[in-house]
Amino acid sequence: MLRMKDGMGALGRILKTIENYKGVVNHLETRPSKTEGILFDVLINVNMSRANLLLLIRALRQSSSFVGVNLLTENNLSAKDPWFPRHASDLDSCNHLLTKYEPELDMNHPGFADKDYRERRKTIAEIAFAYKYGDPIPYIEYTESENQTWSRVYNTVLDLMPKHACIEYRRAFALLQADKIFVTERIPQLEEMSSFLRKHTGFTLRPAAGLLTSRDFLASLAFRIFQSTQYVRHGNSPYHTPEPDCIHELLGHMPLLADPGFAQFSQEIGLASLGASDSEIEKLSTVYWFTVEFGLCKENTQVKAYGAALLSSYGELLHAISDKPELRPFDPATTSVQPYQDQEYQPIYYVAESFEDAKDKFRRWVSTMSRPFEVRFNPHTERVEVLDSVSSLETLVTQLNTELLHLNNALNKIKAKRFC
Ligand SMILES: [Fe+2]
Predict the structure, then answer these.
(1) How far apart are CA 246 and CA 120, in angstroms?
(2) CA atoms within 13 A on the CB side of 252
(3) Which residues neighbour 399 within 8 Å (Cβ) at sequence distance 6 or greater?
(4) How many A from CA of 300 to the centre of ligand 1?
């Protein structure tokens, strides 16, 4: 039972979300609500798996601010059973979209009135929905006009990067140019980018059909997997896109995912999100917003950008380094509750001393969260292990002892060399 605060406008989006979660609507009825502040009550009878129903409930809760939906009944499902992906293949179930910015549903989207563009988006989205763990990422034959849109944005990044991007970004960018993945004329394929990242930090990519729910998106980071869109923004609006597109992902996110310190920071945000409550997910995605998307950091005496939304957007980057916005030191406890703008430039940015410093502060803050267990990622099995029993800790201790032994041996050998 859903309560619609703002009329029936959001119902189409809700039904699409149910479909995305592979639900079948058996029955739907609406009536004017008797509750003050609520326009309609909607009864929807759906047939779907229990796991997907839990995910749907979470997604509806997350999107309630814009679709105006409150959940009346949930059969006590979500409180008892905090499902989260345990293996990288479970991410096949974590591809649920926030439909707020879809060109078909958002009248302000630059592609809303362009039928061909909407068809193109649909075709590429289908590829992402059909993708399964272990598949190679399908090749997209980008059109000439899509490649031109890329060239225009790429050239602005080439202009601004030397002066305003952090050293970690510039270093990885140079490697991507040397490997001929970043060239002016064509959009890189996700598969070649995924291989590049795997070589440097173990991160890989999987295609996403659009803007995912925060829970699904953050969960993938725990596995060092970044869910990346493959479609291109509308050609009439090369410097602005209301939702992430592959130009934003490739130019904004990918270089830093090739940096070991940043990759670790991203994964830690992901690990913290597994089994977290809805309000904690909201806080984590706000931290993600002000760091991975819009973060600034210190480099000697200067402030540089490391946020993907800054590095892939000419206008906002110039705004961020101007004297207009307020710059505050990064502090997860306050950053995580700071309201943010997703329609205009940010009035506030947070500045980290370094990635190491950001990680330290983040770890200390995460340890105060409510989750009653700890998790770690095992890269050999691509599995998240829950450290909630003595036997799981014993395995970890054995592994740590082996690592310490290697460390000790290496130190002894270095010392021996010095005195030779
Ligand atoms: Fe992004």
Answers:
(1) 14
(2) 25
(3) none
(4) 26
